[in-house]
């Protein structure tokens, strides 16, 4: 059984399209993972990390309805199982296969849920999932800012993308639970805050701060406030679609994973336009806002900062984020994990993947030659120091995490059997919404 605190990293499988859908940005390809995946798994273990945010590339794995190419997933997940590394499986990261179009496609939720079921059936030892990564950010960048995929810029397109993304996530959770009844879902969602630049900007900032919760409100079956309800209805969501989210509350299977970067806080002008504000409140303050809303265990699922000219900028940011994690925990929030994202440097993050410039961003624990960066050394030391302290003091998960090597143990089988009984009873009981 896993220790009480989850130290993780990730290998990003982003696949958005740009240039009106004609060009795909495959971050695994850009970062060399397809060539160096065995070395990358070596690096994960070299750091003393047992948990990895990871998933197969959706566009080259999901070839059509009931058509899959599992060749790369079979190789990589077999190796993860052999090494006893726990994957937090990221099934959809910012894009869909060409044959599916984009997030305006109303067929996407059901098609994706079937894919999630197929994956869970093929890899029954996998327990932890992030079915759809950063649903809010994906909808904003694809359908409100016009950066990726459908490249639209309207509230109606945003609501359409959002309802499809969240429905896909909910249906995928349901399908995975049918295959693995003790599955746990670690949502990875951006934790945002919008600051009014002046008194005239208070109103648009309030609206932006209400809108930031929409993906998780719908995902967790929490009633949105009246203004956001009108916003959803005015922009194409039907009452039946809204009721679907209220009736499919699976939050008791979930950990609220939230991401925090220097760019997560924004200044709002009186005309509603926004720009980055830099860190003002910080992770601890914003995370408490999210926890007070959803009352779920929390995991810090993404952060990073570029290694700058001084060479210690990323290390300083790591220490700051870890101090915020401890502050959240000491304030009574059940925080169960922390992630530096990603394992290696990223490519074209500086343009939010909107441009294919091949620009390497020094954000990783290792560079793209797989040489450890100072932040990698610091993270390894942090894990060594705190990994011995936190397990005995951490909040226990309601459903224990099963290591890959423990999947066949009697206690793990009993856990799955009990989860199946509980799940059957839960699906037959009426659902309450908050």
From TrEMBL:
Q: Name one Pfam family in it.
A: Glyco_hydro_1
User: What InterPro entries does the record point to?
Assistant: GH, Glyco_hydro_1, Glycosyl_Hydrolase_39
A molecular-function term among this protein's GO annotations: hydrolase activity, hydrolyzing O-glycosyl compounds
* UniProt KW keywords: Hydrolase
Q: Which GO biological-process labels does this protein carry? A: carbohydrate metabolic process
- Protein name as catalogued: Glycoside hydrolase family 1 protein
Q: What is the lineage of its organism?
A: Bacteria, Pseudomonadati, Pseudomonadota, Betaproteobacteria, Burkholderiales
């Amino acid at each position: 059984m896993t220790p009480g605190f989850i130290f993780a990293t990730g290998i990003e499988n982003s696949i958005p399209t740009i240039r009106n859908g004609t060009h795909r940005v495959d971050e695994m390809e850009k970062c060399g993972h397809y060539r160096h995946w065995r070395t990358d798994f070596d690096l994960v273990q070299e750091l003393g990390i047992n948990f990895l945010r990871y998933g197969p590339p959706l566009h080259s794995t999901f070839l059509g309805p009931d058509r899959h190419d599992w060749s790369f997933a079979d190789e990589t997940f077999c190796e993860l199982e052999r090494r006893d590394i726990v994957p937090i499986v990221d099934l959809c990261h910012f894009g869909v296969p060409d044959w599916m179009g984009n997030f305006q496609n109303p067929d996407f939720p059901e098609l994706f849920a079937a894919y999630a079921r197929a994956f869970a059936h093929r890899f029954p030892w996998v327990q932890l999932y992030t079915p759809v990564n950063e649903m809010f950010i994906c909808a904003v960048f694809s359908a409100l800012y016009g950066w990726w995929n459908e490249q639209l810029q309207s509230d109606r397109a945003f609501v359409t993308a959002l309802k499809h993304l969240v429905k896909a996530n909910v249906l995928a959770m349901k399908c995975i639970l049918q295959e693995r009844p003790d599955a746990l879902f670690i949502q990875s969602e951006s934790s945002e805050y919008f600051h009014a630049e002046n008194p005239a900007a208070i109103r648009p900032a309030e609206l932006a701060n209400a809108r930031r919760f929409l993906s998780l409100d719908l995902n967790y079956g929490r009633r949105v406030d009246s203004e956001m309800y009108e916003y959803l209805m005015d922009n194409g969501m039907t009452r039946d679609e809204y009721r679907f989210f209220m009736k499919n509350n699976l939050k008791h299977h979930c950990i609220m994973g939230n991401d925090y970067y220097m760019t997560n806080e924004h200044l709002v002008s009186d005309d509603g336009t926004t720009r980055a504000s830099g860190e003002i409140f910080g992770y601890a303050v914003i995370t408490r806002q999210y926890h007070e809303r959803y009352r779920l265990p929390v995991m810090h699922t993404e952060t990073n900062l570029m290694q700058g000219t001084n060479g210690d900028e990323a290390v300083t940011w790591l220490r700051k984020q870890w101090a915020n994690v401890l502050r959240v925990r000491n304030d009574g929030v059940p925080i169960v994990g922390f992630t530096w994202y990603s394992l290696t440097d990223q490519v074209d993050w500086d343009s939010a993947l909107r441009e294919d410039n091949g620009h390497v961003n020094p954000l990783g624990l290792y560079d793209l030659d797989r040489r450890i960066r100072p932040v990698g050394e610091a993270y390894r030391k942090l894990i060594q120091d705190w990994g011995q302290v936190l397990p005995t003091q951490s909040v226990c998960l309601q459903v224990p995490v099963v290591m890959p090597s423990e999947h066949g143990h009697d206690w793990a089988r009993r856990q799955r059997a009990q989860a199946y009984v509980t799940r059957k009873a839960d699906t037959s009981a009426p659902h309450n919404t908050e």
